[in-house]
Amino acid sequence: MRWPGGPLRGIAQLPSSKSESNRALIIQALAGGGELENLSDANDTQLMQRLLTDQQAPEFNAEDAGTVMRFLTAYLAATGRTTQLVGTARMYERPIAVLVEALRQLGADIEYAGQDGYPPLRLNGWHPALAADEPAELTVRGDISSQYISALLMIGPTLPAGLRLWLTGKVGSRPYIRMTQSLMQHFGATCRDLGTVLEVRPGAYQPADYTIESDWSAASYWYALVALGEEGSTIILPGLREHSWQGDQAIVGIMDQLGVATEFFPDGVQLTRKASAAAVEQDFSDCPDLAQTVAVVAAALGIPVAMTGLESLRIKETDRILALQTELAKFGATMAEEAPERFVVRSANFQVNGQQVETYHDHRMAMAFAPLALRGPLTVLGPQVVRKSYPRFWKELERAGFAVQEQG
Ligand SMILES: O=C(O)C1=C[C@@H](OP(=O)(O)O)[C@@H](O)[C@H](O)C1
Ligand SMILES: C=C(OP(=O)(O)O)C(=O)O
């Protein structure tokens, strides 16, 4: 990839939120109707949609999509299916015991078809062990993945007396839990957040229409481009809302410190370059998917950034901490654990001069490093990984003026 020079200007098309899309699809299936506008073209969403239309399949392949594996496990279990859930080799390294254990307590017969605690899974039906007059009470760890909690909440209204989830540990990715509750409420469910306990009342979902918002995690790469662009760089991103259910809207505040101003319009935002802070401190517990974007931008700008709340990064598409450390080192930056679970990114003489970035089957590695092409020639290996969440990413970069060449 190369940038011809000059400030970056234009309108970029974002994908729709895959998190909203994949929740809406599960809830729509349970509600038995409703129109979903603007569903994401991300592979994770297209896959969810395909799998939900062929429900008698002997096997469901969630590929590398965490939401698909976790949400479908709960959905297929609660709807009494006998089937298998499989995925990629990496999916078999991403834990699922917290969800399986909770579903077993609700009455699901689930077996591990491979290693205990991990997919693949065999679902052998649902044998409700629940009293019809008392809500099911479950204690669930919140410090591994919020997707287990979202998966359980979404099936809550279908249980005879509803569900009470007691959360333990440091609950990460909280905004994703709130997004689940908001979408459930949009489809007529009653759920309440009582602090450490989440309560879902029994009762059928009502079919409803919903228009999915654009994806704030995908927007973060355009923020990165403006932050690294020349003076005068500006980008318009349609489809983002000022009042969003997506926690990754936190990128607005983070990038304000890294030199990008955001102006909201009725249907989108405009990003412009501005002055940046001298150092940044950020907790990513609520927005783990932004960590790679921020680490790369800060390194390239030479702004030290102290990052906490990165625990869940080790069990995503790849070990994202190790991947960041390895790839940033190629440019002369370090990401050291200076105190337990506190990582500081520093760079002295950051140079982009033809490096090859490994992406480790992780869409966010590809998209987080791509903006560095503004600073020099760059090769991103395995570029097709972006299809997981943002299939048009490279095309949109070309439209913005980058020379993007596919090799091999
Ligand atoms: O519920 C969701 O849509 C997601 C929750 C987060 O995962 P964790 O809860 O595992 O942190 C996030 O990283 C992922 O991209 C999408
Ligand atoms: C972690 C991600 O997705 P998932 O967990 O759904 O695979 C992601 O999109 O960054």
TrEMBL record:
<feature type="binding site">
    <location>
        <position position="147"/>
    </location>
    <ligand>
        <name>3-phosphoshikimate</name>
    </ligand>
</feature>
<keyword id="KW-0963">Cytoplasm</keyword>
<dbReference type="GO" id="GO:0003866">
    <property type="term" value="F:3-phosphoshikimate 1-carboxyvinyltransferase activity"/>
</dbReference>
<comment type="similarity">
    <text>Belongs to the EPSP synthase family.</text>
</comment>
<protein>
    <recommendedName>
        <fullName>3-phosphoshikimate 1-carboxyvinyltransferase</fullName>
        <ecNumber>2.5.1.19</ecNumber>
    </recommendedName>
</protein>
<dbReference type="GO" id="GO:0009423">
    <property type="term" value="P:chorismate biosynthetic process"/>
</dbReference>
<dbReference type="GO" id="GO:0005737">
    <property type="term" value="C:cytoplasm"/>
</dbReference>
<dbReference type="InterPro" id="IPR001986">
    <property type="entry name" value="Enolpyruvate_Tfrase_dom"/>
</dbReference>
<feature type="binding site">
    <location>
        <position position="289"/>
    </location>
    <ligand>
        <name>3-phosphoshikimate</name>
    </ligand>
</feature>
<dbReference type="GO" id="GO:0009073">
    <property type="term" value="P:aromatic amino acid family biosynthetic process"/>
</dbReference>
<comment type="function">
    <text>Catalyzes the transfer of the enolpyruvyl moiety of phosphoenolpyruvate (PEP) to the 5-hydroxyl of shikimate-3-phosphate (S3P) to produce enolpyruvyl shikimate-3-phosphate and inorganic phosphate.</text>
</comment>
<feature type="domain" description="Enolpyruvate transferase">
    <location>
        <begin position="61"/>
        <end position="397"/>
    </location>
</feature>
<feature type="binding site">
    <location>
        <position position="23"/>
    </location>
    <ligand>
        <name>3-phosphoshikimate</name>
    </ligand>
</feature>
<feature type="binding site">
    <location>
        <position position="364"/>
    </location>
    <ligand>
        <name>phosphoenolpyruvate</name>
    </ligand>
</feature>
<feature type="binding site">
    <location>
        <position position="320"/>
    </location>
    <ligand>
        <name>phosphoenolpyruvate</name>
    </ligand>
</feature>
<feature type="binding site">
    <location>
        <position position="145"/>
    </location>
    <ligand>
        <name>3-phosphoshikimate</name>
    </ligand>
</feature>
<comment type="pathway">
    <text>Metabolic intermediate biosynthesis; chorismate biosynthesis; chorismate from D-erythrose 4-phosphate and phosphoenolpyruvate: step 6/7.</text>
</comment>
<feature type="binding site">
    <location>
        <position position="19"/>
    </location>
    <ligand>
        <name>3-phosphoshikimate</name>
    </ligand>
</feature>
<feature type="binding site">
    <location>
        <position position="146"/>
    </location>
    <ligand>
        <name>3-phosphoshikimate</name>
    </ligand>
</feature>
<feature type="binding site">
    <location>
        <position position="94"/>
    </location>
    <ligand>
        <name>phosphoenolpyruvate</name>
    </ligand>
</feature>
<dbReference type="InterPro" id="IPR013792">
    <property type="entry name" value="RNA3'P_cycl/enolpyr_Trfase_a/b"/>
</dbReference>
<feature type="binding site">
    <location>
        <position position="316"/>
    </location>
    <ligand>
        <name>3-phosphoshikimate</name>
    </ligand>
</feature>
<feature type="binding site">
    <location>
        <position position="18"/>
    </location>
    <ligand>
        <name>phosphoenolpyruvate</name>
    </ligand>
</feature>
<dbReference type="GO" id="GO:0008652">
    <property type="term" value="P:amino acid biosynthetic process"/>
</dbReference>
<dbReference type="InterPro" id="IPR036968">
    <property type="entry name" value="Enolpyruvate_Tfrase_sf"/>
</dbReference>
<feature type="binding site">
    <location>
        <position position="66"/>
    </location>
    <ligand>
        <name>phosphoenolpyruvate</name>
    </ligand>
</feature>
<feature type="binding site">
    <location>
        <position position="18"/>
    </location>
    <ligand>
        <name>3-phosphoshikimate</name>
    </ligand>
</feature>
<dbReference type="Pfam" id="PF00275">
    <property type="entry name" value="EPSP_synthase"/>
</dbReference>
<keyword id="KW-0028">Amino-acid biosynthesis</keyword>
<comment type="subunit">
    <text>Monomer.</text>
</comment>
<feature type="binding site">
    <location>
        <position position="388"/>
    </location>
    <ligand>
        <name>phosphoenolpyruvate</name>
    </ligand>
</feature>
<dbReference type="InterPro" id="IPR006264">
    <property type="entry name" value="EPSP_synthase"/>
</dbReference>
<feature type="binding site">
    <location>
        <position position="173"/>
    </location>
    <ligand>
        <name>3-phosphoshikimate</name>
    </ligand>
</feature>
<keyword id="KW-0808">Transferase</keyword>
<feature type="binding site">
    <location>
        <position position="147"/>
    </location>
    <ligand>
        <name>phosphoenolpyruvate</name>
    </ligand>
</feature>
<dbReference type="InterPro" id="IPR023193">
    <property type="entry name" value="EPSP_synthase_CS"/>
</dbReference>
<feature type="active site" description="Proton acceptor">
    <location>
        <position position="289"/>
    </location>
</feature>
<keyword id="KW-0057">Aromatic amino acid biosynthesis</keyword>
